[in-house]
């Protein structure tokens, strides 16, 4: 859950653009690379959260309630000090929803457009 790889990618791209003098093409490539990196790290974060949610369910036979999800994130990933865990890599809050019987969940990033239910959303279900 860090941005080091993203920063290195952007730095390499910047140097390449200056040396090749192709700013318009570079900006397009940089934007596409940044979007792909944000999608990859957000998908990784969703997977990590899902693994911890599933493990907690197996051990405790319960999932965190929706109102307590942010606090659960901070407890489950207490070693993190890089970013607000409740936010995806576009700065939008993750959406955590429990089923009516509270035995399954969905966890969603609303993606770059910030709108739930569109094609750029990333969603994981469990357990």
UniProtKB/TrEMBL annotation:
Gene3D superfamilies: Glycoprotein, Type 4 Pilin (3.30.700.10)
Superkingdom of the source species: Bacteria
Domain Type II secretion system protein GspG C-terminal: 36-120
Native species: Thiocystis violascens (strain ATCC 17096 / DSM 198 / 6111) (Chromatium violascens)
Protein name: Type II secretion system protein G (GspG)
